[in-house]
Amino acid sequence: MTRTEEISGYKRADGRFGIRNHVLVMATVSCVNGVINRVAKEIPEAVCIPHGYGCGRGGRDKEILFRVFSGIIKNPNIGAVVLVGLGCERSNIKSLMPLIDTPEKPVTCLNVQDEGGSLKTADKAIRAAQDHLAAISGTKREPMDWKDILVSIECGGSDAFSGITANVAMGAVSDWLIDRGASVMFGENTEMIGTAHVLARRARNSEVAGQITQMVERAEDLTKQILGKKAGLAISPGNMDGGMSSIAEKSMGCIVKGGTRPIAEVVDYGQLPSKSGLILQDGPGYDPDSLTGFAASGSQLIFFTTGRGSPAGFPGIPVIKMASNSRTYMAMEDDMDINAGKLVEGKPLSQLRDEIIDRMIKVINGELSKPEANRMDVFTMLTVNPSF
Amino acid sequence: MKDSILIINQKDNVAVALQDLTAGEKATAGDMTPVTILEPVAAAHKIALRDIKAGEKIIKYGETVGKSTQRIKQGAWVHTHNLEGGR
User: Fold this and answer.
1) Which of A128, A215, B59, B83 could form a disulfide with B66 if both were Cys (CB 3.0 to 4.6 A apart)?
2) What residues contact A128, with CB distance under 8 A and at least 6 apart?
């Protein structure tokens, strides 16, 4: 095979590599979203994240809030940061900054309550973003090793073919990546129900096996609590019409995207892995929440397989979209990078796998993925308790 | 001949229909001996690759996804009417 397997990125002071070099402009609380929106309008090149979080939460939600905000700021695809806060919020900049031990990553901090109100803050944020853009624009790409990348995989808006075409092809890509030293992560604990024994068998050691079993049991218990009698069915009548006969079969169709290699570690939602290899994230099934967890865990690239056709991307992180069937691919060609439906039309799995790898290498090296080009940025995060 | 079924793992005793299959048609994947389909099977649904005894494990993705509740003939549709998920 003649294709290049050479990849490049931006080396960060902490030793990690970004495959993008973005200026991030992020709110630390929803109250200042208007400021972020003003910056987005003035500086389209900046990755702007307004959102609905930052205050009124405690306990595990507070932990998640701080872990996610600091994880996004530290994500290696981000070269410089403008943080816009209010001042009195839970995740205020002063409390957040000690978690952001990012040497040489410039972070400008502005609080609306200290800067003379929202308009003055917006002016300062715009200037700061412009300065950061100018400062980092000269950074050159350097060769990076496959061990320097963490690729995450999401599946959402699934259909009957997701577990047969797109996720099977993705599994082959996962194995390819891990065999080259890269790390691969997938999550969505509710979509592992019924397959704990299969995943646990592949654990690196008995401790990891125990964590896997615990994670899936907890997801199942919670699903039963919330959905009651319907829980048997995280498998729905629609799933059954689509040919899935049991929850184990449905979940196998989900976890097959992670390939067949040993499972090195289970990480909490948004937590940085300490091992390389195949990583499981103890995270939610809702796609946008899940993507945020992957990004906060340091993923530089995300694959997203979809049957019905989800166009969602993520701010600052290229998301490669793969349709499970040709109808969806053709109906949403502007949003889809790869058509795994070709498997149904006779394309051999090995050819499809190589096509995905080629596209992945191009995207790592700078080519825009479809959701990235379309700016289909979504940012939500997991919450587990009521707000107050 | 174009593949009309997909065998995901070599250990599997079921295959997935890649298109709607009709009774009597010969379904194949790669260089396998074609299987005669016994009844209409919708795309993405499963067919038995060989005769399966009552109570035998149904294997897809190389893993157990259920147990047969009755004898299933080669080429027959495999779904909730003859597969028990055990949950």
Assistant:
1) B83
2) A82, A108, A110
The tens digit of pLDDT for each residue in A299-333 reads: 999 999 999 999 999 999 999 999 999 999 999 99
Given pLDDT bands bounded at 50, 70 and 90, which one contains residue A241?
Answer: confident
Q: What is the CA radius of gyration of chain B?
A: 12
Q: For the domain A22-136, what is the CATH code?
A: 3.40.50.2300
The answer to whether the Cβ–Cβ distance between A249 and B85 falls below 8 Å is yes
Count of Cβ atoms closer than 10 Å to residue B9 Cβ: 14
Could you write out the DSSP letters of every residue in A90-136?
Answer: TT-HHHHGGG---TT--EEEEETTTTTSHHHHHHHHHHHHHHHHHHH
Chain segment A183-206, per-residue pLDDT in tens = 999 999 999 998 999 999 999 999
Under 8 Å between Cβ of A73 and A102:
yes
CA distance A163 to chain B (A): 9
Q: Are the C-beta atoms of residues A105 and A79 closer than 8 Å to each other?
A: yes
Would you say residue A164 has pLDDT above 90? yes
* DSSP H or E stretch at residue A253: helix A247-255
Cβ atoms of A305 and A154 within 8 Å: the answer is yes
* A105-139 pLDDT per residue, tens: 999 999 999 999 999 999 999 999 999 999 999 99
Residues of B with CB under 8 A from a CB of A: 2-3, 6, 8, 16-19, 42-46, 58, 60-61, 63-66, 78-80, 83-87
The structure's pTM equals 0.95
Pairing of strands B57-60, B63-68: antiparallel
pLDDT tens digits along A50-77? 999 999 999 999 999 999 999 999 999 9
Residue A57 forms beta bridges with which residues? Answer: none
**pLDDT, tens only, B18-45:** 999 999 999 998 888 999 999 999 999 9
Determine whether the interchain pair A248/B65 forms a contact, defined as Cβ–Cβ distance below 8 Å. Answer: yes
From A246, which residue of chain B is nearest by alpha-carbon distance?
B85
Which residues in chain B are closer than 8 Å to A249, comparing Cβ atoms? 60, 65-66, 85
DSSP SS3 for A81: strand
Residue A55 is given by DSSP the state S
What's the CA gap between A252 and B63, in Å, rounded?
A: 8
Compute the nearest-CA separation of A276 from chain B (Å): 25
